[in-house]
Every structure is written in C-alpha cells, then in structure tokens.
Amino acid sequence: MSDAASQIEGIASFSLPEAMRAAIIEQARREAPRECCGIIAGRDGMPTRIYPTTNIAAGNSLYEIDPAELIELEFREMPAHGTELVAIYHSHPVSPAHPSATDIALAFWPDALYLICSLQKSDFPQLRGFRIRDGAVTEVPLVP
Amino acid sequence: MSTDDGIHVLIPTPLRGFTGGEARVDVHGGTVGEALEALAVKFPGLGERLHDEDGQLRRFVNVFVNGQNVRDIAGTATELSPGDEIGIIPAMAGGDAS
Question: Can you tell me the distance from the alpha carbon of A73 to that of B37, in angstroms, rounded to the nearest whole number?
Fold first, then answer.
C-alpha cells in the first residue's frame, strides 16, 4: 500500500545500518529480562532513524509499544520528517529470533518489517527480520 | 470536504487502503462511538477493523482524542466537540508468551 511497502516487497534483503543493529542489541540487554521494543523510520524502505519505545505490557514475555508514543510517531514525528514506518523491533530475551505465535497473531502492520533480537545465547545476540502478513512468515535477510 | 465543525480523524498507514490513501478524514459525531460509526459507513470494511462482532472497540486498536487514550476516559462514550481530533492506532505488540 505505502511506497515503503512496495519497495521492501521487491527486495530480497533489508539494509540495516550497523549502528542501528548495535542499538537494538544494547537496548535488548539493558531492558532484559523484559522484552524491549521500538520502531525504525525511513524513506523508500531505507532506514534513517531508530526510535526506542516503552513496552507497556506486563511480565517478561510480551511487548506492546506505548500507543501514546505510537500516535506521536505515526501522526507527527514521521510526517514532520518526511519518513514512514520501515520496521518494528522487539527482543526475545530467552527464546530464538523467530516470530512466536503471539507475534504472528498480533502483526497488525503488514507493510513493516518485523525485527526480532534474541538474547537466548547471551554472548551471541541474534537479530533477524521477517515479513508477517496474513499469518504467513517470510524471512528477509539483514545486510549491513 | 474539510469543515471546521467536523471531527478530524487521523488514519494510520495500515488502514489507509480503506480511505483511498487519505491520512485525515472528517466526520461528524457527538461521541467517539458515533464518529467511528460515521467513519465505518463512509469507508466500507473499515468498521470491522475497529470493532469486534459485539461492536466493542478491538483490544488491539487504540483510539485517542486530542492526545488522550479513550480507554482512560469514557471509551466510545467519550464526548466530542467540533474540531476535536481522533487518532486511530493499531497495536504494535507480540512477544514470546504462548
């Protein structure tokens, strides 16, 4: 539907700047054992800025981005910068970097790439990207 | 199309397919429920994305009025005044809970 979606649709990989990868892993470690979350904005499917957000879900095995922050990002911040949503990220502190059943059931932003950071192997954090659309999961390889 | 006495509704990107790509549409209504109903009538298919079978606002759809979550006010009974701004935002949520 959006430009970014069609752009991402047509490519076989997603270019994630090293600084953003490092920032996601750092946030995941800092907020463990809770899941961390945030979004990445960009233009034409290319990331330009990362926005860490507040996880308002209870417990250590769910995330829900604070909707008040989302309202601000979606309707003010990104339009003001001429950017749009490119990716949504969250962490899996003790499980693999793959969408859970909950992740798939609650994927309401089909045009976004879903990034998952696993801290299951604490010395080897893993970050992977997926498109989740109508219950179907397709991995999109991340490249620097 | 745009009127000063209407309710301004901000449409999130995943739902703009229902509004012909429009990011902001104007409707009339004295409450949030009435405004969302007007929106659903104006854009077929959109209503099902906002409400469940019982007509309740879906758990993973948040509606804000002038920056305040209606769940923290009076829900869909929250009263509106002309010129108010409604923001609709689907949840970004998930996690490893089974």
Answer: 26
